[in-house]
Amino acid sequence: MQLVGIAKAAHGAPLLEAKRQVSYSHLATGKWINRVAPSRHSFDWSINPYRGCEMACQYCYARYTHEFMELREPDDFETRIFAKVWNASEFRRELLKIPVTQAIAIGTATDPYQHAERRYELTRRMLEVLATVSGRRFWITTKSDLPVRDLGLLQQVARRNVLYLNFTITTLDADLARGLEPKAPRPDLRLATLQALSSAGIRCGVMASPVLPGINDDEASLNQLAASAKASGAEWFGGGVLFLKSPTREVFFNYLEREHPHLARRYQNTYATSARPTRDYHQQIEQRFDAIRLANNLSRKATPYLPPDWEQGNQLSLAL
Ligand code: SF4
Questions:
Q1: 238 with 289: CB under 8 angstroms?
Q2: In the list 41, 77, 149, 205, which could disulfide-bond 236, CB 3.0-4.6 Å?
Q3: 138 pairs with which residues across the strands?
C-alpha cells in the first residue's frame, strides 16, 4: 500500500524511545490548532499535542484516529504514542491568527496530560505561550493528576484569559476505574488535583463521561461523585452517554465480555443499529443529572466570568 499524508509521516517518524509496552515517536505536524464544526461544539478550535493515549480507556472514542496513520491493531492507539514536534513560533503564529472571541479547547481527542507529557512537556510549552496573550478563552480536558505540575503557569494564563479545567471522572470506584481506564490516575487523585487547582483560583468542573448503561449510571453513585466533585471545588457537573463506533466498539465489547459478561448482550442489542442508546435513555440520564446538580448546587456548564487582567482585543506583542 502506498502511504500518503499523516500515514506516511507516522510510518517514517523517528523513534524517540521504545519502552517494554509503549513506543513514543516524534511526529511532524502541519497545524497545531484546528478548526472544529462550531454547531457541534461549545468551542471553535482544538489542540491535541499527542496522537494516541497510553491511559487506554476501553471506551475511548478517539481510537479511530490511529487508523488515519494505518495503525489498526487493537492496542496501537494506547501503545504507539506520537508526540508532535514542538515549534513555539509556529504555535504562536497560529494562535494570534485566531479571533479573540473564539474558544480554544485543549485535549478534545487525546489527553494533553497523558503520561508522555511527563517527559515531552508539549502541553507545558503551550501554556508558556498562552500565558503571554490576553482576552482569550481556553478549555483543558484531562483525567490526569499532572496539571498540578503546571499550577503556576495555569494561574498566569488565568490572570488574563478565561480558563476552564474539565476533569473527566467516570466513577469513584477505584476497581471499576482500573478496568475501564487501566492506566489513568485513580479517581481520588483526580479529585485531589481538582481541589488543588480550584483552591488556587482555577475554575474547574467534572464530566462523568461517558455514562455507561448499567455500569456507572446508577443514581446513588453519580450523586456521590457529584458531591465529591462539589466538595473538591467543582463548579459544574455533567456527562455524555457512551458513543460506540468501530474500532472502539470491538475493544469495548471485549472489555464487557471480560468484566461484565451479563451486560454484553444488552449492549449488543442497544448498539446494534446505532452508535448511541435510545432517546429515552438519553432523556432519563438528562433528568438524573438535572436532579443531581440541583441537589449538589452544581451548574450544568461553566459560568462566564472575567479574569482579573482581562484585556480583550489588546494582545501583548509577541515575536513571530
Ligand atoms: S484519557 Fe482520554 S484520550 Fe486517553 S485513552 Fe482515556 S478517553 Fe482516550
A1: yes
A2: 205
A3: 104, 163
> 255-278, pLDDT tens digit by residue?
999 999 999 999 999 999 999 999
pLDDT value of position 319: 36
Taking the CA of residue 59 as reference, the ligand 1 atom at the shortest distance is 7
Residue 70 grid cell:
494505518
- Please give the angle made by the CA atoms of 188, 191 and 195, to the nearest 5 degrees: 135
| CA–CA distance, 36 with 289 (Å, rounded to integer) | 27
The pTM for the full model equals: 0.92
Calculate the CA 190 to chain-centre distance: 13
Q: Which three cell numbers stand for residue 5?
A: 499524508
CA of 168 to the centre of ligand 1 (A): 9
Cβ-based neighbour number of residue 254 at 10 Å: 13
Asked if 36 and 99 touch (Cβ cutoff 8 Å), the reply is no
Q: How far is the CA of 57 from the centre of ligand 1 (A)?
A: 5
Return the amino acid letter for 82. Answer: F
Residue 53 in contact with ligand 1 by CB distance below 6 A: yes
- List, in order, residues 6 or more apart from 279 with CB less than 8 Å away: none
State if residue 60 touches ligand 1 by the CB under 6 angstroms criterion: yes
- Which pLDDT score, from 0 to 100, does residue 299 have? 98
Nearest CA to ligand 1 atom 4: 53
Cell of 142: 484531562
